[in-house]
Here is the input.
Amino acid sequence: MNENIIIYLLAYLIASIPFGLLIGKFFAGVDITSQGSGSIGATNVLRVLKQTDPKKAKKLAILTVVCDILKGLIPLVVAKVAGVDANVLWSMAVLAVLGHCFSPFLKFEGGKGVATGVGVLAFFLPLEAVIAVIVWFVAGKAIKISSLASLLGLFTLVIASFLIHPNIAGINTHAPILIIAIIVVYKHIPNIKRLFEGKEAKVI
Here is the structure.
């Protein structure tokens, strides 16, 4: 089997691990895929678990975010140290987001891709990622709607990438960034519909 295919498969499968589900079951005895939005992301972990234990809910939501970031970031760091080509690294990044959003362990369902997307993009574009996280944090505090804050952070990162890095080193295209953005927006379509209807729930 071609070495790159093995790398791609590993990047996809590692990112497919549903940490939100595992953390909810192991630490709280709750299946978060059967409650709330059904997502495996930190927002749903927080929303579901805060009903029984608000303090634990926040800690487990943070743990979920960290795990979802690292499962995209760590394989890239290892591959970079191993001397893997930039084109392969960017392909791994896209596959990591796909793995989180469409996990074979969850019948190809999954999370929204925000944390994993931030993890992989921070590897390549740390400054843009920091700016996006700041926008996400401020927007989240101001409007208290997780999906809208996440989308604003995402759009900020995409725009910043064009302004700060007009030419992406090693690949000379923004295509992987745009693909990741499209995947994340696609997974947010139900949230976007609720936003337009004024029915999107706030995170308090």
User: Anything to note?
Assistant: The mean pLDDT is 93. Residues 3-197 form one domain.
